Amino acid sequence: MTEPDDPEDGFGLVLDPRVQESIGRSLKAHYDDIVNAPVPDKFLVLLAQLEATEQRAAGASHDESQ
């Protein structure tokens, strides 16, 4: 026996549009919260260290090519 939402049956489970809207609003609110959350200081320090390392590497490879 197959499940009702089995794509091989030719029909799928459809959510009520109001439920879809509610889920969409909830997901958007959670996404917005994450996007707007401040970046932890530890990550900012790590990003700065990575950028400095990349700049040193780019400088070194530029010096070697001359």
Structure write-up:
This protein has 66 residues and is an all-alpha fold. Helices cover 67% and strands 0% of the residues. It contains 2 helices and no strands. The protein has helices spanning 17-36, 41-64. It is elongated and about 65 Å long.
Provide key terms for this protein.
66 residues, mainly alpha
* Cα gyration radius (Å): 25 Å
What's the mean pLDDT score? 85
What oligomeric assembly is this protein in? Answer: single chain
Shape: elongated
Return the string of H and E elements.
HH
Describe the SSE topology:
Blueprint: H1 17-36, H2 41-64
What does this entry show, briefly?
This protein is mainly alpha-helical and 66 residues long.
